[in-house]
Amino acid sequence: MKELGKIKLFKYLTPQEVDWMLVKWQPREIPEGTVIIKEGTGGEDMFLIESGRVEIYLTRGDVVLLLTELQESSFFGEMSILTSKPRSATVKAKTDVRLLVLKKKDFMDIVNENPKVAAKFLLAMGEDFCNRIITTNTNLENFFLINQAIVDNKSFRELYILAHKAPSSSG
Question: pTM above 0.85?
Fold first, then answer.
């Protein structure tokens, strides 16, 4: 993994603060293809990717919507240490993955034992949230514009219908 001080999640922490905080994180090895988090389930862990890649997606019926792929130094599952809400997406190991896992209880210990470190950690996490929201807004805007073009433009609409029409059984 990159030097720990260069990880965005730890960018406001001193090397000593990172070392102190990392004592609370536990390593976990995950084989390729393993579902780490399932959308809609409960959970109280967040994860930092030490090595490997994961994919994050939503499933709606038979449709799988890939949201993003994360790699070394990225984190996921953080909403579970901040809220009691179910997991918002599924996370699956795209390769063998080595993770560092922070349990909600251990995060709360950090908050209680060293609020200054917790505040710097949360600030970095909040900045990442903001960047993710900006990306999501851009994707939603693009989706809206494409959808609007399909609704407003007869040629686009006919092309869309043709592309999504079930094949006929007559061959």
Answer: no
